[in-house]
């Protein structure tokens, strides 16, 4: 009997381009949402674009958050209930989007993503990650109903945020390899379509490396397009597998051991060099990953991440403990093997 079924949740409207922030209300009108919006943001994006958004909606309320935390999520939920809002608009880099995503899941309402930095694929995906103590809580929520990515704003973001977004996309290479491996060894469900889309996204980004330069608005365009496409791959897969493998476990472990040292994308980029080495050996494709990262100005060493060698080795040898996700790290790499991989690849 044929009994397979699948549910793919995608953003309904994706607007990308110069000045599209002023089309936010049109993009929202097409979603046929009811009620007033609550703008969820943080101080810097509020200053840059808060008024431009409020000018487009009657009856909009706003909340500006200092950090991503469970208290922030609760605060948003509380204000949303108090004001009886119909949906959330998340404006900012990662934090307001993560908070709004989680809050909208609690409230059972939709949210619209208005990224001000192309720094990671969370701006389009359904994954939300909130720090709690020395760990991070990653939850599966619905993706945004719409994404409005204004390249004029995104190009003004600090350059390192864009290179972090690039590195997050480049890590798709190893994420897909880990997913295929888990499929072969552990019978984890694999979507050929999502895997191919995720890999192609990384290839296209690497192919455009020459157009990814500071001060070039086209860079924001290329990276955002890749982040959207990576988010679509995750939606098709119904999991973060197409864009998150051992290199993400490594980064999550760095977040625990050395919180706040480097950007998520930069950590997974370096993680990708290391896990690619485990996948294909000394003469394998890790050099391609390293070269792509360095061409785009993303870190390729522990030093450039601002993390010491011992911490990198500790993260690499313990990353498999983070969650029940089978990857090339299997049930753990030995310290000797970790040191050898990190040394040969020049990470330490
Ligand atoms: Zn990521």
From TrEMBL:
Record: residues binding Zn(2+): 168, 248, 264
Pfam family, one: Fe-ADH_2
Required cofactor names: Zn(2+)
Database matches in InterPro entries: G1P_dehydrogenase_arc, G1PDH, Glycerol_DH
CC annotations in GO: cytoplasm
Amino-acid positions noted as binding glycerol in the UniProt annotation, renumbered to this chain: 121, 168, 248, 264
E.C. no: 1.1.1.261
Main location as per UniProt: cytoplasm
Cofactor mode of binding and number, as noted: Binds 1 zinc ion per subunit.
Involved pathway(s): Membrane lipid metabolism; glycerophospholipid metabolism
Keywords attached to this entry: Cytoplasm, Lipid biosynthesis, Lipid metabolism, Metal-binding, NAD, NADP, Oxidoreductase, Phospholipid biosynthesis, Phospholipid metabolism, Zinc
Described purpose of this protein according to its UniProt entry: Catalyzes the NAD(P)H-dependent reduction of dihydroxyacetonephosphate (DHAP or glycerone phosphate) to glycerol 1-phosphate (G1P). The G1P thus generated is used as the glycerophosphate backbone of phospholipids in the cellular membranes of Archaea.
UniProt name for this protein: Glycerol-1-phosphate dehydrogenase [NAD(P)+]
Organism: Haloferax mucosum ATCC BAA-1512
């Amino acid at each position: 009997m044929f009994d397979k079924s699948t549910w793919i949740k995608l953003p309904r409207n994706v607007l990308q381009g110069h000045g599209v922030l002023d089309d936010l209300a049109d993009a929202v009108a097409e979603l046929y949402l009811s009620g007033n919006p609550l703008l969820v943001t943080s101080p810097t994006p509020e200053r840059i674009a808060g008024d431009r958004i409020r000018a487009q909606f009657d009856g909009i309320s706003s909340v500006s958050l200092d950090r991503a935390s469970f208290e922030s999520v609760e605060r948003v939920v509380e204000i949303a209930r108090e004001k009886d809002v119909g949906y959330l608009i998340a404006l900012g880099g990662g934090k307001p989007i993560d908070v709004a995503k989680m809050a909208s899941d609690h409230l059972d309402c939709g949210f619209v993503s208005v990224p001000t930095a192309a720094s990671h694929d969370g701006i389009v995906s359904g994954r939300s990650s909130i720090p709690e103590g020395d760990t991070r809580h990653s939850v599966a929520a619905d993706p945004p109903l719409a994404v409005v990515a204004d390249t004029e704003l995104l190009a003004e973001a600090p350059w390192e945020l864009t290179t972090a977004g690039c590195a997050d996309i480049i890590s798709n290479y190893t994420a897909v390899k880990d997913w295929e491996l888990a499929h072969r060894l552990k019978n984890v469900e694999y979507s050929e379509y999502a895997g191919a889309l995720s890999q192609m996204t990384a290839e296209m980004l690497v192919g455009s490396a020459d157009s990814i330069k500071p001060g070039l608005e086209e860079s924001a365009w290329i990276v955002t397009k890749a982040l959207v496409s990576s988010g679509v791959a995750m939606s098709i897969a119904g999991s973060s597998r197409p864009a998150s493998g051992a290199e993400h476990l490594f980064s999550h472990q760095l977040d625990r051991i050395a919180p706040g040292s480097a950007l998520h994308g930069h950590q997974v980029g370096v993680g990708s060099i290391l896990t690619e080495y485990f996948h294909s050996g000394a003469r394998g494709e890790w050099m391609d990953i390293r070269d792509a990262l360095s061409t785009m100005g993303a870190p390729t060493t522990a030093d450039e991440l601002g993390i010491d060698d011992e911490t990198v080795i500790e993260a690499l040898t313990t990353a498999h403990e983070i969650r029940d996700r089978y990857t090339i790290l299997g049930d753990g790499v030995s310290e000797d093997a970790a040191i050898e991989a990190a040394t040969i690849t020049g990470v330490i």
